[in-house]
Amino acid sequence: MPVHQKNDLLRFTPKGIYCEQADVYIDPWRPVDKALITHGHADHSRWGHKSYLATESAAPVIQYRLGKINIQTIAYGKKISINGVDFSFHPAGHIIGSAQIRVAYKGEVWVASGDYKLENDGISEAFESVKCHTFITESTFGLPIYDWKPQQEIFADINAWWRTNASLGKVTFITGYSLGKAQRILNGLDHSIGKIYTHSAVENINEVIRQQGVSLPSTNRIHKDIPSKDFESNLVLAPPGALNSSWMKKFKPISIGIASGWMALRGARRRRAAERGFVLSDHVDWKDLNTVIKATEAERVIVTHGYTKVYTQYLKEQGLQAEAAQTEFTGENLEGENIPSIDNSTTPNQ
Question: Is 261 a domain residue?
């Protein structure tokens, strides 16, 4: 936990990020009465709270995933006052409906960013910089080795790989999170190459998002009655958890690819027995992380999940008041794989 200062507007507690004045939590990881939710990923949106508040475009997926819950929605930029504390939700660019939550009280402004990215993926609401005194940031990819290429280059590589596989009669099998990454991949694929088949976990989310009025390319849900030959030369989009499962047996011959920021690390693809690794993340890389923090004009930065120790030290050397906070947020992972660690004992060079 960070070292709290007297009258801190937000505090890190065993239940989550807490605003005592308003008696609400942001992305709590234990059941609470009032939860403000930044987005629908499972490490930020959990079951068991008495009431939820999320953006209008995040709520449908949250409801789908959590079932019958008491959830209210709020438009981006609209202020709501709770016991004198003003809250507003601002686009985070991470996935559809994702938000940073601005908290203001008696002239003090904090922003809890959740997860975020700067690159506009064409589906999620584009990131909006919000000025504040204290900024709570992730550091999932908080090292200089993480330097994302423009997504157009990544999708050009993915489509070229698919074309090659199609010419050989192979099934192209690519993985990405069922919420966010899968829709981003789907939007970037060249649909003239062949058909796109989806794992049910992906297609269920697609259906929720389509019902919101979001336009997604056509897909084909995979079911047991589809003959194996129908997949030849076509593409299968599945969550990372499907890798190396018995479910994959019908896809032969197959070429496997993974879309993840962790593909920037040597050996990550090999350990997952994939032929191709595509560096595509829904989190900021090193340069964008620093761009965002500078734009907030924050004097104090609290760093959560990722390379917290090394990034906090880096920020201190830039003259900022910085500290790390332990949370139960996980950022981007590969469904249970232990991500290779980088030495956190030294400060990175730009």
Answer: yes
**Domain range enclosing 266:** 151-278
pTM comes to 0.93
- Locate 299 and state its tokens: 């004097």
**What is the C-alpha separation between 203 and 223, in angstroms, rounded?**
11
Residue 347 confidence (pLDDT):
39
The pLDDT value recorded for residue 331 is 81
* Number of domains into which the chain is organized: 2
331, 307 contact by CB (below 8 A): no
Instruction: Report residue 2's pLDDT band, with 50, 70 and 90 as the boundaries.
Output: low
Q: What is the pLDDT of residues 71-97, one digit of tens each?
A: 999 999 999 999 999 999 999 999 999
Q: Check if the beta carbon of residue 85 is closer than 8 Å to that of residue 97.
A: no
Q: 19 CB contacts (<8 Å, ≥6 apart)? A: 9, 10, 25, 26, 85, 103
Is position 330 within any domain? Answer: no
Domain-embedded: residue 229 = yes
Is residue 116 situated within a structural domain?
yes
Q: Which residues contact 251 (CB under 8 A, 6 or more apart)?
A: 171, 173, 228, 231, 236
8 Å CB contact between 116 and 94: yes
243 shares its domain with 94:
no
CB 27 within 8 A of CB 38: yes
CB 12 within 8 A of CB 25: no
Q: Token digits for 329?
A: 């947020």
Residue 208 and residue 296 share a domain? no
Cβ atoms of 192 and 216 within 8 Å: the answer is no
- The CATH number of the domain holding residue 174 is 3.40.50.10890
